[in-house]
Amino acid sequence: MGTSHSKGKAMKGTVDGKSAEFTFTTTPDGPRLKYKLKDTGVKDTIEKDCLIGTISSKANNANSHIILYVDRPEEADSKKKSVVVPHYKSITATGLPKEFVDFSKANFLESLQKEHKQNASKDAKEPNIHIVISTLSGIGLAAPFYREIIKHILTAANLTEGTDFLTHFTKSAKTVTELATETWLPRANAGVAQKIILLSGDGGMLDTINSLLSAPHSSSYNPPVIVLLPMGTGNALAHSSTQTTDHTLGLSTLAQGNPRPLPLIKTRFSPGARLLVDEATREEELSPDADGTPILFGAVVASWGFHATLVADSDTAAYRKHGVERFGIAAKAALFPSDGSPPHVYRGRVSVLDSAGTWKEMERTEHAYVLATLVAKLEKTFTVSPASKPLEGALRLVHFGPMDGEEVMRVMGLAYQGGKHVEDERVGYQECEGVRVDFEEDGENGRWRRVCVDGKIVRVERGGWVEILREGRRCVELVAR
Ligand SMILES: Nc1ncnc2c1ncn2[C@@H]1O[C@H](COP(=O)(O)OP(=O)(O)OP(=O)(O)O)[C@@H](O)[C@H]1O
C-alpha cells in the first residue's frame, strides 16, 4: 500500500437502486472508489487491481453504469502457485465520479455490444462472437471461470448466448482447430469481423493461428480479434502481452483492452518431422508449406535442448495436475537423472540469421539450451527474455552450453529474478532474424531431437533440421492493455 492519497470528494448517487455516497481517491497504487449505502451503512472498496471495468448500463439512464470487479483474494490464495477463480461482483450505480468512469471504461466490452447491434441490424444469421472454453487446459479452470464470471459479464454487457455469442466447450484436442478451419477462416476471408474469447493456455492460440494460416488469405481477410484469458499452465503469451498482474485473471483486458497485431514465428522442419500427440503415444504429420516443407506457426517460443525436454516430458495427465509446478518437477528429472549421470549434452550445429540476411554458425556444437522467443515471459514469473516488449515482434535467442545440473538450476533460477540469467557470461542472448539447428543426435527414438513450439512437441528425424523465422503474415489481433 502506498502512503500518500489525494483527498477524495464525496459524491451522492445510488448503488443497485439504494442511496449511496461515493469517494474517489488517487493512491500510489492507483485510483480507488469507495461507496457506502445510506440506509444500512453497507460499504465496499473497489481498487484498481480488482477492477474489471465499467460499462454503461442498459437502463435508460445515461448516468447509470455497471461496475464489474472481483474480491481481493485471501492471503492464502494469493500465495498459492496455482490459479484460483476469484469471487466476481458487480453493482449498478448512478452518480459515479466522472474520473472513475473515464478511468475504468470497458471499451472492449462496449465494442462487443456495438457489434451485436450492427449484426442485429444486418440480420446476421450466426453470431461472430465466440467463447472457447478449453476444458483440459491447465488445471481445468476454464469451465468454472466461464460459468462463475464470464457468463455474468456478458449478461451485464447485454449480450445473449445464441443470438449474440456462441460458446464452445472443447471436447477433444481438435475442437479449436475444427472451429478455426471451418468457421473462423472462411468468415475472415469473407471480410467478416470476428471476436473470440479464448479461455486456454498458449496451445489454444497455437491451434488457432495454425488453422488460420492453413490456406491462402483473400484480399479482404479480416484478422479475428482474440482475447486470451490465461487458463493454461505457462500462459506465456498472456503474461507477456496483456495485463495479468492484477487480480482479475485477464478480465480487465477483456473489458478495457485494445486489439493489436500478434507477431508470429514460422518453424520449418526437414521432411519426416512429426508432431507428437496423446502423451507422445502417436505421431501426426505437420501441415506442409507451399514447397512441401513441414511447418508449424507459433506466437511464443521455439526451443531445443533442456527447455523442449522438460515441456515434452511433463506433457502428461499425471504431470498436468501439478499446474505450473510440472515444469519444475520435470526440470529436476532432466537435470539429475536417476542413474546419477550428468544432464544430457545436446549435439548439433546452430546457426543464427542476422539483420543483414546472413546465417552465421556458432562455434559451439554441444548445447544445453537453445531457445528463440518473441515474448518476455514463459510463465508469470519466469522472464526468459527481459528485453522483449509486449507484441513488438522481435525474435531473441537465449542459449548456453553444457553445465552440470546444479549450475543449470542456478542459471535458470536467475530467470525468476526478472531475467538476470542473461547477465551470466555463459549465457548467450541476442536479437536475431532466425535460428537454425542441424541435429547431430543419432539416438534411435529421437528423444534428443524434440523441438518445442509454444508447448507442442515435434520430433525431427536423424540428420534433420529445424529453422525458426519471423513470419510476416497478418493472422490475428490480440487484445492487450
Ligand atoms: N476436452 C479435451 N480433450 C482433449 N484435449 C483437450 C480438450 N480440451 C483441451 N484439450 C487440449 O489440451 C491442451 C491444452 O493446452 P493449453 O496450451 O491450452 O494449456 P496448457 O498446456 O495447460 O497451457 P500452456 O500452453 O499455457 O502451458 C491443448 O492441446 C488442447 O487441444
From TrEMBL:
Pfam family, one: DAGK_cat
Protein name: DAGKc domain-containing protein
Start and end residues of each DAGKc domain: 124-271
A GO molecular-function annotation: lipid kinase activity
PROSITE patterns referenced in this protein's UniProt entry, alphabetically: DAGK
Organism placement in taxonomy: Eukaryota, Fungi, Dikarya, Ascomycota, Pezizomycotina
Gene Ontology terms: biological process: sphingosine biosynthetic process
GO CC field: cytoplasm; membrane
UniProt source species: Patellaria atrata CBS 101060
Gene3D superfamilies linked: 2.60.200.40, Probable inorganic polyphosphate/atp-NAD kinase, domain 1 (3.40.50.10330)
